[in-house]
Specification:
CATH topology of chain A: MetI-like fold
Largest sheet of chain A: none
CATH architecture of chain A: Orthogonal Bundle
Number of strands of chain B: 0
Largest sheet of chain B: none
Largest interface: A-B, 47 and 50 residues
Strand content of chain B: under 5%
Order of helices and strands of chain A: HHHHHHHHHHHH
Order of helices and strands of chain B: HHHHHHHHHHHHHH
Oligomer: heterodimer
CATH superfamily of the largest domain in chain B: MetI-like
CATH superfamily of chain A: MetI-like
Strand content of chain A: under 5%
Number of helices of chain B: 14
Radius of gyration of chain A: 23 Å
Number of helices of chain A: 12
Mean pLDDT of chain A: 81
CATH class of the largest domain in chain B: Mainly Alpha
Number of domains of chain B: 2
CATH topology of the largest domain in chain B: MetI-like fold
CATH class of chain A: Mainly Alpha
Helix content of chain B: over 70%
Number of strands of chain A: 0
CATH architecture of the largest domain in chain B: Orthogonal Bundle
Low-confidence stretches of chain A: none
Mean pLDDT of chain B: 79
Low-confidence stretches of chain B: none
Distance between the termini of chain A: 37 Å
Distance between the termini of chain B: 19 Å
Shape of chain B: globular
């Protein structure tokens, strides 16, 4: 006689002590978490503590190299704005865009993946075909084309980035859903009369959460990068609002006379994106030890 | 598949506010009657499905429209910029393949060694560096600082010699190749690890084949097979990277063409480049699949 457990697994491997321990033993992942927290905190709190706002123009100290004056620690730009203040305010924008674009893209990706995986058949196939077709377009080309035609505001940019980055998530969720929907507990739920949406959200989704969380973390990294690309090219966040990408926009002009203008925001982007990538990688190893080879 | 791709492209550019007429609409000297006449002459006043159908039919025939800006056929303009982009992508891929395969293989052989850990961290950082910023750094160090490399363009005007071109190609290919190198090294490492524990490697060892020969002849040949697919998958990100690299290095390729056309709202060219790159991606992945099944007889073509 076989004993079949019809309970939805409670132990989802997410807050298990073992998982946490595995994660904490990954030094890079811990570095990522600490860096993300520090960066976020600095961007939120520090602008209030600085002597200059990000738009204040100090005519007496234009083009100032970094580490020359205590009150302009990272120097100033050609019109005398404080680089550190701009960097931190830009960080608020870039990080929040990265985060909100991730949330929107996860919602789209999870919904499409769940529906496609659960219903399968014509609906599933056509949805996944659409996903494949979207993946054919190099994402920067798509984002640029639309943002140039619409000159979007910040929420518009978030939507744009999300609209071009949900496909990978949809694929992951679709594959998970397809395999989870035939598990005993999902069939049992169907047998006792649970509705389809209830099975999707209460039985399948919680058990597919691990790869979703990993994808979400990596999506933040890619969204921050995407924002910096389009702002660098001049089609993203418009000045005077600073973002890490548009701070680099005219830095190329001053590459010989003021290289710090190009170097500092670039380090900030790289640091933030690397941290999220480390975190995502660490989460993947911690949540699914078999994936590590 | 191509049909879905073309529908997405068409829908995006037509439904976006601004649309194909925005260039004329923002011109104050044009009256509504003028606008209507322009729309009619360009065929923009008919229902969307009709426009789509005709547009698709013309695309298939090779008529991709006329550029609004310089009145040249779109396909002709794309073709004149394609060479520069392909040249850049090819040399970047060559760098990525050589470096990536070497780093990945070494990492797999000396697994968990210092080199392996450094390569892992390095790959992760390489994936996180914004391409344009890395380009600026390369220009700053090698052009502004050391004066070794030119800071842009495909060749010095008046000097189109082979070495001059190569000299100009080094910087942008390094920049574009960085991300691909990271990806290649990661995949190569895991593919190599899969192969290295197989029975035929153990057999070769037992026969007394030298370690170097085992790696280069027995293991690498098999580990490289799945890399064919990786090359196909990378085309979209390579194209995106090329756009940014071309901007930084003022490289006269398709990416710059795209960007310029966007600034001028040269709608047929934007549409053309978008479609062209999507088709390129589609063909590349198809080609990779076919090559893979040819190269690896274990994969049957109808599975």
């Amino acid at each position: 006689m076989t004993v079949v457990s019809l309970d939805t697994p409670r132990n989802r491997g997410f807050w298990k002590r073992q998982t946490v321990r595995r994660f904490m033993s990954n030094r890079l992942a811990v570095f990522g978490v600490v860096m993300i927290l520090l960066l976020t905190l600095a961007c939120i709190v520090l602008p209030w503590l600085l002597p200059f706002s990000e738009t204040y123009i100090n005519m007496a100290a234009r083009h100032l190299p970094p580490f020359q004056q205590v009150d302009h620690l990272f120097g100033t730009d050609p019109i005398g704005r404080d680089t550190l203040a701009r960097l931190l305010v830009a960080g608020r924008i870039s990080l929040s865009i990265g985060f909100s674009a991730m949330v929107v893209s996860m919602v789209i990706g999870v919904c499409v993946g769940l529906v496609a995986g659960f219903y399968g058949g014509v609906v599933g196939a056509s949805l996944m075909r659409f996903v494949d077709a979207m993946l054919c377009f190099p994402s920067i080309f798509l984002i640029l084309a639309i943002s140039a035609l619409t000159s979007p505001t910040i929420p518009g940019i978030v939507l744009l980035i999300a609209a071009t980055s949900w496909m990978e998530v949809a694929r992951v969720v679709e594959a998970q859903t397809r395999s989870l929907k035939s598990r005993d507990y999902a069939i049992a739920a169907l047998a006792y009369g649970a509705g389809k949406s209830r099975i999707m959200t209460r039985e399948i989704l919680p058990n597919a959460i691990a790869p979703i969380i990993v994808a979400a973390t990596l999506n933040v990294a890619n969204a921050i990068l995407a924002e910096s690309y389009i702002s660098f090219l001049g089609f993203g966040i418009q000045p005077p609002t600073p973002s890490w990408g548009n701070m680099l926009n005219n830095a190329q002009t001053y590459l010989t006379s003021a290289p710090w203008l190009a170097i500092i925001p670039g380090i900030a982007i790289t640091l933030a994106v690397t941290s999220f990538n480390f975190l995502g990688d660490g989460l993947r190893d911690a949540l699914d030890p078999r994936a590590d080879q | 598949m191509l049909i879905i791709v073309s529908m997405i492209g068409f829908a995006i550019l037509h439904l976006a506010p601004g649309g194909p007429m925005s260039q004329y609409a923002s011109d104050g000297s044009m009256t509504q009657a003028d606008l209507d006449r322009v729309a009619e002459s360009l065929g923009l006043n008919r229902p969307l499905p009709v426009q789509y159908g005709e547009w698709l039919w013309r695309m298939v025939q090779g008529d991709w429209g006329i550029s609004y800006r310089d009145r040249q056929p779109v396909l002709h303009i794309i073709a004149s910029h394609l060479g520069a982009t392909l040249e850049l992508m090819l040399s970047a891929t060559l760098i990525a393949v050589f470096l990536g395969v070497a780093i990945g293989t070494l990492g797999a052989i000396r697994r968990y060694s210092l080199f392996d850990s450094l390569a892992t961290v390095g790959a992760m950082i390489a994936l996180s560096i914004p391409t344009f910023w890395f380009g600026l750094v390369i220009i700053y160090v090698f052009s502004v600082g050391l004066g070794w490399l030119p800071s842009g363009n495909r060749y010095t005007i008046g000097d189109g010699s082979f070495w001059n071109r190569i000299h100009h190609l080094i910087g942008p290919s390094l920049v574009l190749g960085l991300v691909s190198t990271a990806i290649w090294s990661r995949y190569m490492r895991s593919s190599m690890l899969d192969v290295i524990n197989q029975d035929y490697i153990r057999t070769a060892r037992a026969k007394g084949v030298s370690e170097f020969r085992i790696i280069t002849r027995h293991a690498m040949r098999n580990a490289l097979l799945p890399m064919i697919t990786i090359a196909g998958i990378q085309i979209p990100s390579l194209l995106s990277g090329a756009l940014v690299t071309e901007t930084v290095f003022t490289w006269p390729g398709m990416g710059r063409l795209f960007l310029d056309s966007i600034s001028y709202r040269d709608y047929p060219v934007v549409m053309g480049v978008l479609m062209f790159s999507a088709v390129l991606v589609l063909l590349a992945s198809l080609l990779a699949d076919i090559l893979y099944s040819v190269a690896d007889p274990r994969i049957s073509r109808n599975s």
